[in-house]
Specification:
By secondary structure, the chain is α+β, with helices and mostly antiparallel strands. The chain is built from 4 helices and 12 strands. Helices cover about 25% and strands about 25% of the residues.
Length: about 190
């Protein structure tokens, strides 16, 4: 992950920054699902908990060739009026690192019970009994509101970005450009 590409959301009178960021997140996810060999990490230089926002920039990290594939792909064409694409640059040598993770809440006891029922072959009443003492959790992290092409449903992808640290960690990135193990350069 020695190179990066910043996608900067341009001000727009008709579409909010969040709406455009959601489109970028959905399109990036679709691209990474189709291009299985491309390894990309995502970070958010404007990330904040108060106010809760991902900010106006998504920074894509990767090797130069993978970032060039993104720039050349068709999924970016529809965003040209809303997003400025900076040049692919080499990361600074003396940078810190951050962790950017997906966070999932135990937000719906009924959803958890349905999932448990399917996975373990028990009826829904037994599954609900298992979760009866669990309080539903509400997350206070910024999120992308994405549209699933496989199910047609909309869902929130909550993102937790750590404070900068000095430890570089290797690992894999998922089709959202997030990792539960790897760190990304921060500068």
């Amino acid at each position: 992950m020695d190179y990066y590409l910043d996608l900067v959301i341009l001000p727009d009178a008709e579409l909010s920054q969040n709406t455009i960021m959601n489109v970028i997140g959905t399109r990036l996810h679709q691209f990474l699902v189709l291009e299985k060999g491309v390894k990309i990490g995502s970070s958010f230089p404007g990330y904040s908990l108060k106010p809760r926002t991902l900010g106006p920039v998504i920074r894509l990290h990767g090797i130069e060739g993978d970032l060039e594939k993104i720039v050349a792909s068709r999924w970016l064409n529809v965003l040209r009026d809303y997003v400025r694409f900076d040049l692919i640059e080499k990361k600074p040598n003396d940078c810190q690192y951050i962790d950017v993770r997906r966070v999932q809440a135990k937000s719906s006891i009924h959803r958890l019970a349905r999932r448990y029922s399917r996975r373990h072959g028990v009826n829904i009443i037994e599954a609900l009994e298992r979760y009866k003492n669990i309080e539903e959790e509400r997350l206070k992290y910024p999120f992308l509101n994405l549209n699933s092409k496989s199910t047609g449903q909309r869902y929130n992808l909550f993102i937790k970005q750590s404070t900068p640290h000095s430890q570089k960690k290797e690992g894999e990135f998922n089709s959202f450009g997030l990792s539960s193990t790897a760190s990304l350069p921060w500068f």
